[in-house]
Every structure is written in structure tokens, then in C-alpha cells.
Amino acid sequence: MYDSDEWEVDLARRELRARGVPVPISGRAFDIVEVLVQSAGELVTRDDLSTRVWPGAIVEENTLQVYISAIRKALGPDREMLKTVSGRGYRLLGAWTSRKESVSAANSTDLEPRSPAEPFQTNLPAAASELIGRTDAVRHLGGLLSAHRVVTLTGPGGIGKTRLALEVARNLFPRLHSDVRLVELVSLSDPALVPTAVTAVLGLKLGGGEISAESVARAIGAQRLLLVVDNCEHVIDAAARLAETIVQMCPRTTLLATSREILKIEGEYVYRVPPLDVPSLDEEPGNIPGHSAVQLFIATTRALCSDFAPDGESLASIAAVCRRLDGIPLAIDLAATRVATLGLQQVAAGLDDRFGMLTGGRRTALPRHQTLRATLDWSYKLLSESERLVVRRIAVFGGDFTAEMASLIAAGGEINASEVLCFLANLVTKSLVMVEAGSAIAHHRLHETTRAYALEKLAESSEFDQVARRHANYYQDLFDSAEIELDTLPMDVWLARYGRQIGQVRAALDWAFSPTGAAEVGAALTVAAVPLWMHLSLIEECRGRVERALSGPAETRDARRNMQLHAALGAALFLTKGSGPETLAAWTNVFEIAESLDDADYRLRALWGLFVDCFTSRRYREALAVAERFCLYAAKTTDPADGAIGDRLVGVALLALGDLKGARRHIERMLGRYVARKSHIIRFQYDQRLLAHSHHSRILWLQGFAEQAIRSVESQVVDARASGHPLSLANALLQSALVALLAGDLTLTERYMKALLELSARHALESLVGRCFGSVLLMKRGDIGAGLELMRTAFASVPHNAFSMLFTPFRAEMADALGRDGKAAEGLSIIDEALARSERNEERWCVAELLRIKGELILRESAPRATTAAEEHFLQSLDWARRQGALSWELRTSTSLARLQHDQGRIAEARSLLQSVYDRFSEGFETADLKTAKAYLSFLQ
Asked: Mean pLDDT score of the chain, rounded to an integer?
């Protein structure tokens, strides 16, 4: 015992006391006090302290500082007795005197003293193969074992707890001044045999009497020991009791335990073993081999099939398998083993029956590790009946869920909501349910494999349909509320709240339209989930789900439900296939049902769809008539935004017809009175304000206001990014790139083109227009051959019902490039076709430009009377441009005509024509066309 005024340290009982009263202090902090007291006030360096308290371990400086702070806190008012010598170490001041106390019989050890020359012992098995993907975990656990007396590795079956524990222990043993012993509990069927198993491994001499946790701990005593206790879950109570007793009575023993269920003892540090790292869905092919799950898969397969060398396509399949198996090493090992005999594609395709597929583990493995089913059987049998009931019922969740959701779905019969919460917590501690606690509300989930197993068990019971119906009804109610919240929540908040529920919708619909499901529930949920699909831009999925709902028995749906489904189908068909008979039929059905129900909302939705069908089919006069009809119905509603949307429809129809003045008036009136609502994206598929700005920007450029047009497109791209709606952003990028191209800003065009292509790849959107922009950029930068080849390839994919207003400018650019490449005849063919289409469909907004390019091509062809014919086309172009008020087209044509007049010696006439047009501009003098015109005027001077 050491005395320093009122303080004493009892080494036998490992107590720090003040005036005879024990002061709480951790075991590791006490070890530090012991070293400092024994140094009798002398300086103890940090390195020396770390070596003596954590022999063989690497100790971070902040770890030592944590314990020094804890000692000062224990010393309270006398904290100044512990001095820090800056940069060197620590000194404990005071008149400490030593009085040697004999160790009490209760804490004596029956282990024979080891001679200094005797080496430390271990029974750890040698590693048979490299442990893949756990380098950081091994390093981290080494640090944890230096700071904590008991560390438990926990996680679901097959996650690799045992292999990781053994690797950590093997890594530490050469540096520890202690024995390292492995105790395997897997073969025990009687929990009472846990102390006996430890006794046998350690070779303890206990004498007579019962073998208990206390007798084992007394026998270990003060011996330095790292004890690895493997597979505790099936004897968890006995293992926990033994671990806690050893921690309390054996100051130099550290425990490393593995268990699917945590021990729940004082001082336990729980380390949840993570799955291996798996590639994301959009992972670049070159990065796939860098993920540890893929590395394990390849290594296991090569061990059985040495010539296995996966290529790009195979790597993508391996990544998909690893994702479906949640990165769980045992499952990946079993899958890779099967690849050696069945082939990769067979295994990937067979994972729907993963329990039949993933068998045939190593013969020497534990029986529960030889098949995936056996692994889960082991965990399932260790559950109470109530826990089994809960895990079966929560298997209906197709993604993560909150505790509240679980209590609503899993409660019923013999178990109430509060009991569900209790059993859910148990399932978390037993590693069958994962919890993500990073946000204010914790989200739970089952690994996909665990869920598949639990669903099998639920299907074997009589309550599957009852639980599944409850789940589907819950999410229908949830998404009915979600649509209302569209206009009250910020988009990022709405998506964060509801976007993660897409898996639940899929699971519920899969059940609803199954043979034992409920089609009427599925139809209702399909309608409720449309806003989710739209805002996530999962349009193909939306279309497929709606078509499935409509294919069910008609008697399960009333007229309103049919109207809602056909409206969703019309929108999805338009966004995936464009206009056509199916799309027209869908919107016609919606309009007829809306008329019969006098439903103002769906009447306008139907008219919007009919307008789009006319517009994409290039029936612009008919589209204008539908738009005007939309305005008549919108005037009867109580929402002024409906009338504003009607103005946009009229404006875009007038733009196509070449009435720029009328188009601008309607578009600006829309922008002046429209109040944006996110629900309009569901009603009309796009952000309406962004669409209006797109049309407005094009009109501004056509009328000669290039700077305003560029400012507008830059602003709308910013707004589109903030909208959080990929389809609206894609349209904004497309339209902005077109205006930038018209203005001759190739750098800005390229920026928007790249952003469009990246967005298209990320959301699986059509990238055809992006490729057209790429081809134009190549041609304008001098690589005409490559640009033409790319454009031809792109045009070969243009559907017949594509937006003509998008592709006409590209046809014009292609024809112009052909003329510059010495292929004027081919260019004339393209221009004549475009002009004929414009005449047929009354697409007049760019007729002036088509006529100008035809004139240029005629000159390049150098046919007889080419000059006269070209001048006639230039004059026609000027007439169209002036009648439409398209000052930018007029400038281009005036420049072309001035060149022709100059070549004919009509210099004054050329200068007068071009100067008169140039002088009418008030901005945009740094744009390409105006700079070209100014340079030519200088030449003409």
C-alpha cells in the first residue's frame, strides 16, 4: 500500500482510495497510476509508460491523454500531483511510501510462475489464406484492444467475425508480452460447460470443487493474457457471465469475443463487423476490381479455377452478385465456389434461389457454414418464438424502415406494438437487423439474404397475405400524404423522406399483383406512387407498373381509378416512347372519363397530353387549337396557375408557327403570373416555369437579344439544378445548349452538352440530342468528317415522333457542313427535305435559316444560274425573317447576301443592306454573328 497524505493505492485490490473511500477509476487508468507510483516521483516517459501498460501494442498519443485526463479527474482537488513534463512524459508527486501487501487468497493464481526464458504461448491456428478487405479493421481493432478490456466482434452469420478475430490476435501476438489463447464455444450444447472449455484451453489447475466462472477467474489471476472467445451467441448468458467475472477479477486479461449477439456486460466495446466493400450501381468499370468483395470473389474463384480472368462484362456481373449478397464474405465465397463449376452467368441468374444455389462450402467448415441456408438456420433457431414472429413479419419491408413502421406492420395477434419495439431491439443486438443511426430517426433494414430467408418463413405461415396487405395499405396512405406535401416541403426534403421508400413500393406491388395478392390494393398504390416515380425519373418503371395495374381485372377499379391510371400511362408513354397511337389513346381515355366525372383537374391533364401529342406529331395548328381549348377550361378553375400554363402552351405553338411576337406575349404573360408548384411536375411532367424560360430564351435570341437570351439560359440551368427534377434539368440543359449554339458560344454549348450527357447516363435518359450537339461542335471546330459521321449515326436513331423543333437546327447544321465539305448536293437534299417538312407542318420558326443555307449550298454547287437562284433564296429568307421579326436570322441572311452582292461588284448595295440590319441591334455585339457582320462591314469599307 502506498500512502500520500489522504491518498492510497491498494495493489492487491486494485483500488485508488481517498481517506479510505474507493475512488472510481478504470482498470487501464489504474495500471498507469501503478507505474507512476512505483517510479517514486521520477519522470516516466510516454514511450516507457505505453510499453509497460500496453506491452506490444501501438498506442496513439490521444489514447494516453484520455487516461491521464481520467486520472486527474479522479484525483479531484489534488489533480496537480500528476504533472506533465511537456514533450517528455509524466511525474506523480507526493511522499509516497511503499508497504508491501500480500495478495489475498481470493485473488491468488494457481498458475505456476513462468521462468524468464520461457516463451509466451498461443494455440491460434495458422492462417490458411489471406484475409481480404480487412486491413483497416485489423489495425483499428488492435488499437481498441489497447484501450478496452473486452471487445466483442458482432454481426450476422457469415460476415467473417471469427476470421477477423483470429487475424487480429495473430497480428498482436508477436508484440504482446502475454499468452494468446483461443476458446471455441461452437461445439458446446450446454451453457454450463463454458467455464470448463476455458479451463481446458488454458490448462488451469483448479483443484477440487465445481468449475465456475469465479474459479476460472481466480485461477487466471494477474496473469497477462489475451483470451479470444469465439462463437458465444448460443451460450450467450454463460459466456457473458464468464467474461464479466474475468474482467472484474483478472486485471491483466483482455478478452476478444465473437458473437452474433452482444454480451451486454460492463466495459464491453462492441465492434460491428462491416460487410466487404461492394461496387455501386453506377461504378466505373475500371474501379470495380478495387472493391474488397470483388477481390474475394475473384480470389476464391481462381483458387478453384486458375484461368479465371474476368473481363469488363464479367466484372459487372461479379459486382451485381456482390451487391445482391450484401458484401457478406461467406455468401460471396459460396457463390464463387459455384462459379468454378456452373459459370458466372448461371450463378448470377440463379440468385433468386440463393439458398438452393449457394451450397457446397468447404468440407472442413462448420456445418452451418457449408450452405447459406444452414447459416441462417443457426441464427433463426436461437431466437425466441416472438422474435421469430417479428423477423418474419418485417421481412415484407423492401428496404429500410423505422421502428414506428415496424410496430404498425408487425403488431397483431399475440404481440402488440410496444412488444414489437422490444423484440426489434433484440434482433438488432443479435445482428439479424441492421440499424442506421446517423439521422434523428434510426432506420432499420434486413440484409437481402436475411430478408429472403425470413420471407420464406413468412410464406410458410398462414399470415403472409395479411401482413403484406397491411404493408401495402400503409404505403398507399403514406404516398397519398406525400403528394399533398409536394407543395409544402422543399424538394430535397421531400426526396430524402420519400425517395428511400421506392423499395417498399416495389415489394408491395409485387405482392398485390401476385396470384394471392389484391389487385385493387395494387391499383391504388400504383396511382399513389406516380409522384415518386416521376420525381426520381424512373419513367420506364412507372410505365411498366401502370400497364400491369391496367391489365388486371377491370371490375376491381372504378372510373376514377381508371382515369388516374390512364393519365399516368399517358405521361409515361410520352416520356419513354413519345407520341403515337398508344399515347393518344391514353389521353383520349382520360379526357372522356374526366368529362363524364366533370373532373376539372384531369380534364386539363388530358388536354395537356393531347397538346403534346399534336406538337410532337408536328400538327402545330391543331396543337394551337388544343392549347386555346385548354385556356377556356383553365379559366373556369379556381387556380390562376392553370391559365398561366395555358398561356405557355399557346406561346410554344405560336413559336413553332413562326409568330414570334404573339409567342413572346403569351410566354411573358405566363412568367408574370405563374405561381410555381412542384405538383405541376406530376400533372404536366415538367417544371412549367423552366419550360417557359426555355421558349423565352429562344425567342429573345431570334428577335436579336442575344445577351438577354444567354443570361436567361444560365439562370434557368441554375434553377433547374435546384429543382431536384432530372427531367426538367435535362430539358433545361438541352434548350440552353441550343440557344448557346445559336449564339455561337461553343464553349457554353459544350459545357451544357457534357452536363446533359452526364445527367443522361446517371438517370438512364436518352442521350441522342447530346450526341447531336457533339457532332455540331466537331464540325464547327474543323473536324467536319468526324462530325458528319457522328451526326449520321445519331440521325439513324431519331424516332419518327421526335420533337422536330429540336432536330431541325441539327439538320440545318449538317447540310451546311456538307456544303463546306464539298458535298453540296447531299446538303441540298437534306435542306429540301427540311423545307418540305416545314411547309407541310407549318413549322415556320426557322424557315428563314433553311432558305439561307439552301442559297449558300446552291452557290457552292456552282450550277448554271446558281448566283440568281441563290439570291432568290436569300431574298425569300429576308422576307420570312422580317415578317416574323427574327432579327438574328435577318442578320445571317444579310451577311450571306452582302457577300454575294460584293462578288457581283454591288459593294455599295451590300454595305447598305448589312449596315441597316446591324444598326438595329442594341446588344450582343460580342456574339459570333455580329462579330462576323462587323468584320465584313469593315472589309466593305
From this structure: 84
